[in-house]
Amino acid sequence: MTAERLGMEFSKVWTHLKYSTSNLRPPDRVKAPVTAYHPLGL
Question: Is the pTM of this model over 0.85?
Answer without folding.
Answer: no
